[in-house]
Write a structure and sequence with these properties.
This protein is an alpha+beta fold and 349 residues long. The chain is 23% helix and 31% strand. The protein is elongated and about 185 Å long.
Length: 349
């Protein structure tokens, strides 16, 4: 038995190196097969992730956990509840078109969509028994001279002719005029009581003789007072008359100045004999409802529909445009008159 064992050892010793080489090859082959399978599995997983990833330059690997949480949230949406079990949806707001022939005024009812295409609230029309399905904004339902739109904008009753906006809103300025001053400084007269200044109306009807610090008693241009006088002369050559030396005759021209003032207005300086002194501004005004025009100056009082108004100020803007402010005398409310537009004439031929 021992001899056989020795024989095996001898045989193993002869093939020892070959056996080790065979075992090493088997191990290497096994490792190569495992490595191949591992690499192949990784490539398959990378390919699956690449197919699932959004394509694009900025795409990034998604967070699987976050995606799972979002998916769970979508499966259980938030429940909106109200007292009447209805969902509130905010209305879409539309920017108004500047070319809209019916300009919209702000009203809470806009958000509820209760305006007609002309911009009048349906609730307001229904309140006064006016139709809501036909154009009615530019109609005068009570024949008081004001359209339904104007009645709505100024808060008056469109079915009551005694309820309407102020008639002054139907006044328009058409032209501004700057006339020469009403008076001309005509000269000086001496009297026992002192100097009196001859002040002539421009139309030549009256020649007033007024002392210093006295008012000019003119009913059409009241409240002007003489506040200052300065005697002045200037040399003036007459080319038609020459002296012995052949030079034109020089005479002294009286250019004395008389200063007038009305209230707190800027003083007006009149030069003796000068008719070119600039006067007050006047405005031509057109009353749409009566189709008539008239002229007003500062402090003028006029009547429209049995109501008196006074002109507070007239300012020259540009060209023939003017800013005219009038005051209603019974309540002291001021109004700035608008410029006459072509559509004002079209509405009231």
């Amino acid at each position: 038995m021992r001899d056989k064992f020795k024989a095996y050892l001898s045989l193993l010793g002869q093939y020892y190196e070959r056996i080790l080489v065979i075992l090493a090859l088997i191990v290497l082959i096994g490792f190569a097969i495992w490595l191949f399978l591992l690499v192949n599995g990784l490539q398959s997983e990378i390919k699956r992730e690449d197919n699932a990833r959004p394509k694009g330059v900025d795409s990034q690997v998604g967070d699987v956990k976050r995606l799972e949480s979002v998916e769970n949230a979508l499966e259980q949406p938030v429940q909106w509840e109200t007292n009447d079990h209805r969902v509130f949806i905010a209305p879409l707001m539309k920017q108004s078109d500047p070319n809209d022939p019916f300009p919209k005024i702000w009203n809470p009812e806009v958000a509820e969509g209760t305006l007609t295409p002309e911009g009048l609230p349906i609730g307001w029309l229904q309140k006064y028994g006016l139709p809501t399905t036909v154009p009615i904004a530019n109609i005068d339902s009570d024949n008081d001279g004001f359209t339904n739109r104007e009645e709505y904008e100024y808060g008056t009753d469109p079915r009551d002719p005694n309820s309407h906006p102020d008639y002054v809103l139907k006044l328009r300025t058409t032209q501004i005029i700057q006339k020469p001053f009403q008076f001309i400084f005509n000269g000086i007269a001496e009297s026992t009581t002192g100097l009196k200044f001859s002040i002539l109306r421009r139309d030549g009807r009256v020649d007033y003789y007024v002392k210093m610090d006295e008012m000019i008693p003119d009913p059409e241009a009241p409240d002007y007072k003489v506040i200052h006088y300065e005697e002045k002369y200037q040399n003036q050559e007459d080319p038609t008359i020459r002296g012995g030396d052949g030079k034109p005759l020089v005479t002294k021209l009286n250019v004395s100045e008389l200063t007038l003032q009305r209230g707190n207005e800027p003083p007006v300086v009149l030069v003796k004999g000068n008719v070119g002194t600039v006067g007050d501004l006047f405005a031509k005004v057109y009353f749409i409802l009566e189709d008539r025009s008239f002229e007003v100056g500062k402090n003028s009082i006029f009547t429209v529909q049995n109501t008196q108004y006074q002109v507070i100020s007239i300012k020259k803007l540009d060209g023939q445009k003017a800013e005219v402010v009038v005051r209603r005398l019974d309540n002291g409310k001021d109004f700035s008159l608008r410029q006459l537009m072509p559509e004002d004439i079209k509405k009231h031929p």
